[in-house]
Design a protein that fits this description.
Layout lengths: L1 H13 L1 H21 L18 E13 L4 E12 L6 E6 L3 E9 L2 E4 L2 E3 L8 E6 L4 E9 L7 E4 L11 E4 L19 E9 L5 E4 L12 E11 L5 E4 L1 E5 L4 E6 H10 L3 H12 L7 E5 L8 E2 L4 E4 L12 H8 L7 E3 L5 H20 L1 H21 L22 H18 L1 H14 L3 E3 L1 H13 L8 H9 L13 H15 L14 H9 L7 H11 L7 H13 L6 H10 L3 H11 L3 H14 L5 H11 L2
Parallel strand pairs: 1-11, 16-17, 17-19, 20-21
Antiparallel strand pairs: 1-2, 2-8, 3-7, 4-5, 4-8, 6-7, 9-10, 10-14, 11-13, 12-14, 15-16, 18-19
Bound molecules: ligand BES and zinc ion (ZN).
């Protein structure tokens, strides 16, 4: 069979006619395959099985007990709802790995049992829960408990925390993991307010993406109220040995005691960021803005849970060099939390606008040099992804039907989205674009929109007003085509041009490492220097850099990431014990994924990766475990 195939390939190679026929056939098959895929409806959320168009949930009342021993949340959720269609007979909720204990309906003020059916689970979406809805019911209650393998929860042992004495629990609901700890209509098209009671061991404190009582007595019973309606992916809770310290009038930090002061110092500019963002983009809608610092296994840099962003401790560098993360999560209070993507295909609306705002906030607080440097680094991240990702993943509006929405995650929705907005800004001027964005946030406040609704809005509010500068055709190219459109703005930094020069001179041997004036370099300059070194360096060059600048011992986790990647690609053994510690201590996917990928590219690296991963895996979040399993033990 193999021989036959290879003969056939040789035949095709040598015969032009046959080659033409074959390529014609292939493109015909491709066209047929596209035609056979049902047309995508931008208004449908393909990642939820719920029925909000029939019954729309409007408020949740949660009462949950937290058991660290069983690694389980158990209790109930009550739904208020509106009927959107006649003769609706059921409320359909999303669930994943939940045990449903009972369902009841409130009719004429009295609770009565009602029927329910948990469907067989769909791999990507989980299991639909159908709850019978009596004609006169005005509330539905579901009693349930979670599974220890719930994808949206991470249960940490005391050893995995800063204090090492007490356990920790946190949720991560975006994109579709809320359904693994609450049965609900898990789609960003539905917004609910909520009330909650969390029952915890008495020595721990619970917090939520809601109104918190900062120094509430540790009673083991915590009450929360969330007056603003939010999509399900923003429901969040955490339980741990937490303390609170204010930073400003509206901002503060929740963290374990041993890292609280360092976090408060690192993020001291949060209040200023909040004030300046309001000035440019309109009032902050959420009351307070606090930060919760999580243990290092948190799989993301940050998560914009309203009123209380969840933040990785890996950005506490001691010099505010990585605080663009805070600007980013804060910016989501406008783009994402107030104006929300309608489906996960539209994630770029959340992340692209937020990334654009992040750069602007960083410029307002730290000046243009930093703005330029961060823009260039972001642009390079994008170029890296564009070089590697298959074309369908390079579109802003990305078809994720039948896939886990996490599969669409890359720099594309972030940096390509931001670049599109930067292009509009460049063409119509900053003042006009700022005014437009402020209006956009006001017009869509507390609602969700699809890419197509965004295009329609831009058509009337921007393109019609600036027909010479903008065209729908150009915007559609950005959204529906792969790659970075030709003529797109390319960020520049003068500081980085100097770094390019130094790097070239050092590589050619005309500049000694001891003559590199790196004492004044910022973290960004270091990242740019390292990220743009050639793939292969000599052992002597590696040793030279390491001896001169102590890179293996750097305290900055981003610099460490860049250096360790270089170390792996050059099999530079002196860095491997730091690498091992790094992979065991940090669970943030963005920092560890590239390291594992680089390791498994060589046989000896793979052996190392598998050995380290065996000890590191139990400390990783379920989402990070999934990603690393696929890389290390495919
Ligand atoms: N909302 C995202 C995290 C997210 C996106 C979780 C999609 C699940 C699905 C958050 O705001 C984010 O973008 N975090 C980044 C921060 C960075 C871009 C500054 C991260 O975690 O790396
Ligand atoms: Zn984000």
């Amino acid at each position: 069979m193999l021989r036959l195939t290879s003969r056939f390939i040789i035949l095709i190679r040598e015969n032009t006619m046959l080659r033409l026929i074959c390529s014609g056939l292939l493109s015909l098959i491709a066209t047929l395959a596209v035609a056979a895929t049902p047309k995508l409806d931008p208004s449908i959320d393909y990642h939820s099985q719920a029925n909000p168009h029939e019954v729309l949930t409007t408020h949740l009342t949660l009462d949950l007990s937290v058991s660290f021993k069983k690694q389980e949340l158990s209790g109930s959720v009550i739904f208020d709802f509106e009927r959107k269609a006649d003769k609706v007979s059921e409320l359909v909720l999303d669930t994943r790995d939940l045990t449903i204990v009972a369902a009841s309906a409130r009719v004429d003020g009295k609770w009565q049992k009602t029927g329910f059916k948990l469907e067989a689970p769909h791999t990507a979406l989980g299991a639909a829960l159908r709850v019978a809805l009596p004609a006169k019911a005005d509330q539905i209650k579901v009693q349930y408990r979670t599974s220890p393998k719930a994808s949206g929860l991470q249960w940490l042992t005391p050893e995995q925390t800063a204090g090492k004495k007490l356990p920790f629990l946190f949720t991560q609901a975006q994109a579709i993991h809320a359904r693994s700890f609450i049965p609900l209509q898990d789609t960003p098209q539905v917004r609910t307010t909520y009330d909650a009671i969390l029952r915890t061991p008495k020595n721990l404190r619970a917090v939520m993406s809601a109104e918190n009582t900062p120094n509430a007595d540790k009673t083991g019973e915590y009450r929360f109220h969330m007056p603003q309606a939010i999509p399900s992916y923003l429901i969040a809770l955490a339980v741990g040995d937490l303390e609170f310290k204010a930073m400003g009038a509206r901002t503060g930090v929740y963290a374990e005691a041993s890292i609280l002061d360092a976090a408060v110092a690192e993020f001291a500019d949060t209040e200023a960021m909040l004030e300046i963002t309001e000035k440019v983009y309109g009032p902050y809608s959420w009351g307070r803005y606090d930060l919760l610092i999580l243990p290092p296994s948190f799989p993301f840099g940050g998560m914009e849970n309203p009123r209380l962003s969840f933040i990785t401790p890996t950005v506490i560098a001691g010099d505010k060099s990585l605080v663009s993360l805070i600007a980013h999560e804060l910016a989501h209070s406008w783009s994402g939390n107030t104006v929300t993507n309608a489906t996960w295909r539209d994630l770029w609306l959340n992340e692209g606008h937020t990334t654009y705002l992040t750069y602007r906030i960083m410029e307002l607080i730290y000046g243009q040099k930093r703005f330029n440097m961060e823009s260039v680094l972001g642009y390079q991240d994008l170029q890296g992804d564009i070089a590697e990702l298959p074309a369908p993943y390079q579109l802003l509006a990305i078809d994720l039907r039948d896939k886990d929405p996490d599969d669409g995650f890359s720099n594309v929705p972030y940096e390509k989205g931001a670049l599109l907005l930067t292009e509009i800004e460049t063409k119509i001027g900053r003042a006009a674009f700022d005014a437009y964005l402020k209006q956009y946030f006001a017009d869509f406040a507390f609602s969700s929109l699809s890419t197509e609704a965004w295009l329609a809005y831009v058509d009337t509010h921007l393109v019609a007003k600036h027909p010479e500068q903008l065209s729908m055709q150009r915007l559609e190219q950005w959204i529906y085509q792969a790659g970075i459109p030709e003529g797109a703005p390319a960020p520049k930094s003068n500081a980085f041009s100097d770094i390019d020069q130094v790097r070239t001179q050092w590589l050619s041997g005309s500049l000694k490492s001891s003559d590199i004036k790196a004492a004044g370099w910022t973290v960004h300059e270091w990242l740019y220097f390292l990220n743009n070194l050639p793939a292969q360096l000599t052992e002597a060059q590696m040793l030279d850099l390491d001896t001169q600048f102590k890179l293996t011992g750097t305290g900055n986790n981003e610099i460490a990431h860049s250096w360790l990647l270089i170390a792996i690609n050059n099999n530079y053994q002196p860095a491997y014990s730091r690498l091992e510690n790094y992979l065991i201590q940090i669970g943030r996917r963005k920092l560890i994924t590239p390291l594992y990928k680089a390791l498994v590219a060589t046989p000896s690296g793979k052996v190392f990766a598998q050995r380290v991963y065996t000890s590191a895996r139990p400390g990783y979040h379920p989402l990070a475990q999934g990603t690393m399993d696929a890389i290390v033990n495919p």
